[in-house]
Structure formats: structure tokens, C-alpha cells
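Morning F.,

Quick status update on the modeling queue. The single chain you submitted on Monday has been processed. Sequence for confirmation:
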Amino acid sequence: MSLCLRRGLCKKLLCLLLIAFPFPFRVNGAIQIVGEVEVRANGTKQVLPFEIKLGSSCQIKTTAKLPDTVEFITGFEDQDCYHLKRIRTESDLKEFGWVAEGAHPVQHYGSGQFLWLALCSGTFLDQLTKTENLTSNEFPIFDCFRKNPAFYHDDILVRIVRDNGRGELPKEVEFSGPPYVVDGKGKRTDLKEGRFLAAKYDVTRMTNRFGLNLPLEFRLVRYLPPGFKMTDTGSSVAEEFSGRVQSVETIDEPASFLPEFKTSNVEIIDSRFSNVTRGPELGYTSTNKQWLKRTDARLQEIVRLQKEHPKQRDKPQTISKTVKMVVGGLLVASFLGFIILAVSMHRFSKESEA
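C-alpha cells below.
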């Protein structure tokens, strides 16, 4: 699971401040934003339509149309983030779920995290006490943009530029990488250049709708450390996200912003209680098309059993591993483009000093 899930008390307190998303637009109900995201990495390109609902909370949906249609849907409630992956084939529909602590996307797919930063992060940013030299506890979303390559450690600093005012979205965000790299064996090598620009987000066009300043065109570019280049292209750019809003309209406030199940018996990986159980994430099945909230009696019983019997985790671990194996197989079969993209981002060659 993502390193974002293991941050400590500071992060937990910040998440508790973000139980609601009171977006400051002047409209009865909610708004729906439709557009597309283009993802480029190492010579490959994917274009993903997206749909975002903003109101008392928010929901982010992206769709990849490959031989099969793959939908990623992220919703929020209380201090938790709910992810659903839906795979449609000509004859079948499969769904897999993840639940994590955090009032922002913390794992699974970069496009959703990019869209959250661009269009849904205003209330989160309201809670910050500063806009420069933000650390992992203060701005944990940065993990999602430095996760690959894995030689980045936690030593990344963030600078945010945005207008003053409640709910304002960022105009620019810089992610400053550490003055060193660490290889797969844990060997640390200092960079003679010192800190480097690990990633940068900026807005190129904006509009004002319903009293909210919204970006119409925006992008995020992630860079490799000095001296590293992509193997196939020779570029220092590891990945680039470009977003474009196509329409903004009012809608009725949804009864829930959580992803809706279309099938029964959906297997879920739940990492919200790792600090309580002191073990791996929980694995269980939703049989009634409902997410299990923290206070659900069934979920509390699962947590209690794992806490009291830490060695008797065979079933949850087996379920969790099974889900991961199935998801991995489906990714190979129906999401090949993204696997190629992800694998290519790990292939770097040290720049010759000659």
C-alpha cells in the first residue's frame, strides 16, 4: 500500500479537519465538471475522460477505453477515501474496492490524484498554516507524484501558489526533491546539484463559475533527478499529465459521493486499521452493494479479531492476496497500456559524464 497511509499523528489530525467539503460556490445542489486528462510517459500516451462531482463532498471518475472499459471512481466520506475499479467486458462486469484513511486520493492511479489537486483540493489547502516548505505530514498528496521512481524518500518539500480566499484552488505547486537518490538496495548517493525540481503543477487557463475560480487547462510534469534519463526517449521528463475542462454545470446534490457498486460480492482491501491491528490491511467481501463504514458492526468485529489474534490472519491475508492477484491479472489482460507506461517509468539510465 502507499506510503501515504503511514504518516502518523499529524496527518490524522489534518484528515479529521477535512470531514466535510464545503465548496464555496453559490449554487443550490452541486456542480459537475467534465473533461479529459492526457497522460504521457516514455513515448506512450493515454487520454482519459473524467467526471467530477463537487458539493458537500466530491467524487472523481476517470475512464480508460481499451479493449475493455476500465473505470476508476474515488469518493470521500468523513476522513476516509473510497476507491472502486470497475472493468467492463462484452460479457462481464467486475469490481474491486479499496478503502484508505485520508481526505485525498492516496493510491492506485495518478490521474485521479492529479484531478484532485487541480479541482478538489481547495478545502484541504484552507487547513494548511503555510504554503512553502510543506512536508509529508502537512501535504501527503505529494507521495502520489514521487512514488515512481522508488528512489525518492520522504524528504520532499512542497510550495503552493494560490489566491487568498476560502476554497481557492492552486495555481502552481512545486515539488522539491531531496538532494540524494537511493537505489533498490538502499544505497544512497548524494546529488552534487542539491535539491531538484521533482514535479511541477501549473494552470494555463482559468474561469469563474458559480463563484468558484476553476482551472480550464492545467498540467503536472514529473522530472527525474539530475543525471537520470528515460531509457527509450533520453528525456528527463518521467511523466506528464495535462487536463482540460470541457463543461461545468449544476446538478442535484447526490445522496452519496461514494462510488456505487453495480455488482454484489465485491472484494475490498481496507487499510484504515493497520495501526490498530498492527498487521496487514484487512480483506473482506461486500455482499450487499454497500461500503463498510468505520462504525459498522461487522467491520469492527473483523478488526477486533485481528487485534486479539494477530497470528490468525490467514483469511484476511488470503483474501487480500487473492484480490491483488486477480487485479494484477486483469491489468495484464485489459490495461496493458498503463502497465507499459508504469514499467517504462522504472527504466532509467545513468547519464554518461563523458
